[in-house]
Amino acid sequence: MRIQVLGPLSAEVDGGSILPTARKPRQILTLLALYPGRVMPVPTLMEEIWGAEPPQSALTTLQTYILQLRRKLGIAMGPGGSGGAGAAKDVLATRHGGYVLHIPPESVDVHLYEGLVARGQDAFERGDDEAAAARLREALALWQGPALVDVHAGRVLEIEVTRLEESRLVTVERRIDADLRLGRHGELLAELAELTARHPEHEGLHSQAMVALYRSGRQAAALDGYRRLRARLIEDLGVEPSPQLQRLHQAMLAVDPALDVPAGPKRGSTFDLYAA
Q1: Stated pTM of the model
Q2: pLDDT tens-place string over residues 198-234
Q3: Side-by-side strand order, sheet with 92-95
């Protein structure tokens, strides 16, 4: 089985789609796929589908949705497949208090993504910037759009979507850190211009954009980026930029030679170049 949640939802067995068209069975399949091998409690599934006030028929209706999913599995795993209805009950199994999807974690793209991110982060902390950038780029390539873009997200899946999108942004930022330490500042300018436009108050991304511009011989543009971010933070939030960003700005005004070194002695982020 192959399931994709990093973008449009997709679920296949032996090349055949088992993706339900109805909204609620899609939510159930998604939630089970996010935690393969773990029992998803019935109350959690009910909360996802119906919120805080499930109808009296909720348990019976949930069982019907599970049967529908098993039927699709059974058809895909039937003649010419790998087992049919009996195997479907083993794959999507009933357990005390809930249901579990018995598939290897690597069958779901989010778990491949998280494994690559962990390897990339480990390489980054070891100072192996080439490996870090490569693994993190592989991880990000698994994304085909916003997480669960075509799945209605209830209260439980909303939390998962937020978690995944935050992870994606952190991974992008870390990959750019590695690329900056490798001296790829010129290649990053367009990407960082887009990212800072999408996240106009994200100080980490703005610090990366400032460093990339500065190292590309565009000191004035780097300083202007700081001035625009500061004005936005003061106007929208009533706060000054963080001490790290202020020190980075002062370093650029002073033409600090440390800014010219793509890979400094600290194995940290660009944002923390001038951390206290």
Answers
A1: 0.88
A2: 999 999 999 999 999 999 999 999 999 999 999 999 9
A3: 40-41, 98-101, 92-95
